[in-house]
Design a protein that fits this description.
The chain has 378 residues and is α/β, with parallel strands linked by helices. The chain has 15 helices and 17 strands. The chain has a 7-stranded mixed beta sheet, sandwiched between helices. It has a 5-stranded mixed beta sheet with strand order 2-4-5-16-15. Strands 13-14-17 form a 3-stranded parallel beta sheet. Pfam families: DJ-1_PfpI (PF01965).
Length: 378
């Protein structure tokens, strides 16, 4: 079963499960057991920071790249928002082609530039290239560009299933890496030269970094900020995000395809009469990280999809300068179909609230189902 079908097409996962049959469902574990992971020792933490030091510029240039019609929402917007608010690097949001980007499973944006325009302005390349998950792991333009940036000395950071894109470029061969729990098997099968590392939210090896699920880009970006500007700066940004502690520690074993996960996907997708569109008003200065996390979470329930709306079709500029395009033109939305307003706009708290609101609306199993997709340690 393809990860993108599972995460982005409820009907697709239902059809696949029905085809596999009840015996497959019964073979799934009833639950996953959490285990306490040891702290990251000082030697490993220091080695990670040393490996993430800016390779070229004192004030690094960071490029976040995606395809126009299938780049994962939070993988793309979370690094952008966190790094922009830190103000320790010049950060640009890139697309392969001109025009807007339709992110998945929610939101559409106007990127800063195309990869061609970036190359023309910066022939010596970026210091860091951030690669989100994409609908296609074999997009020829993306793969060629990533390889060219690595050849110019950029460190490449694969976010979540973006590791599959980096793997397809050949940059992970012979290196240690991780990825979203659902993509581990596929990554190892397609690229047997990669050395998978469990129980780490992010792994850095020889100029390439990879992370686990979608929410892992938060600790990954904070660690990158620490490597660039020091611990005090990273802690200040962490407080701004609502995240008091972070490191590479992770319990990989708790994230797996379980029977409740499959049954929730089937039940929610089949409840077609209860499917709904929930509105999020777009306002100037919106926190793009919180917006991405909340819209992403609500769009993964298999019961609801989040759409943004505004009074006109012009781009709304976010807190840190991203241009977000509304999905619909409207001055209001039915109150009972609005995504609940964020009581605490700090991104980590906004996600926790979204999961609580999802539980209240669709049940605790659906909130767990969403958290599992996000690979979010709750």
């Amino acid at each position: 079963m393809n990860l993108r079908i599972m995460l982005w097409s409820g009907l697709g996962v239902v059809a696949a499960v029905l085809a596999l049959g009840a015996a497959w469902l019964l073979s799934l574990p009833a639950a996953s057991q959490a285990a306490v992971q040891p702290a990251i020792d000082a030697k490993e933490a220091a080695a990670t920071l040393a490996a993430l030091k800016p390779p070229k510029r004192q004030r690094p240039l960071i490029a976040i790249v995606g395809i126009n019609d299938g780049t994962e929402t939070t993988d793309y917007l979370m690094p952008y928002g966190i790094l922009r608010r830190a103000d320790v690097a010049d950060v640009v949001a890139l697309a392969t082609q001109p025009g807007p980007m339709r992110l998945h499973p929610a939101l559409q944006i106007e990127p800063d530039a195309t990869i061609a325009a970036f190359d023309a302005e910066h022939p010596d390349g970026a210091d860091y290239v951030i690669v989100p998950a994409m609908m296609r792991d074999d997009d020829a333009e993306v793969l060629k560009w990533i390889k060219s940036q690595a050849a110019k000395g950029a460190m490449v950071i694969g976010i979540c299933a973006g590791a599959k894109v980096v793997g397809a470029s050949g940059l992970l061969d012979g290196k240690r890496a991780t990825t979203h729990w659902y993509s581990v098997g596929e990554l190892r099968e397609k690229h047997p030269a990669i050395h998978y590392v469990a129980d780490r939210r992010f792994v850095v090896d020889q100029g390439v970094a990879t992370t686990t699920g979608i929410t892992a880009s938060m600790p990954m970006m904070l660690t990158l900020i620490e490597a660039i500007a020091g611990r005090d700066k990273a802690e200040a940004v962490g407080r701004d995000l609502g995240l008091a502690h972070w490191d590479a520690r992770h319990d990989s074993g708790v994230f797996k395809f379980t029977r409740p996960f499959a049954l929730t996907a089937i039940g929610n997708a089949l409840a077609v009469l209860d499917h709904e569109q929930l509105g999020i008003p777009l306002t100037s200065g919106v926190d793009e990280v919180s917006l991405a996390l909340v819209a992403d979470a609500w769009s993964r329930t298999f019961r609801s999809g989040a759409v943004t709306f505004a009074g006109n079709d012009g781009a709304i500029v976010s807190r840190d300068g991203l241009r977000i395009l509304p999905d619909q033109i409207a001055t209001g939305w039915p109150v009972d179909r609005l995504v609940p307003a964020m009581a605490d706009p700090r991104p980590a708290r906004a996600l926790d609230q979204a999961l609580q609101d999802i539980s209240a609306r669709h049940g605790a199993r659906t909130a767990d189902f969403v958290a599992m997709q996000l690979e979010y340690p709750r």
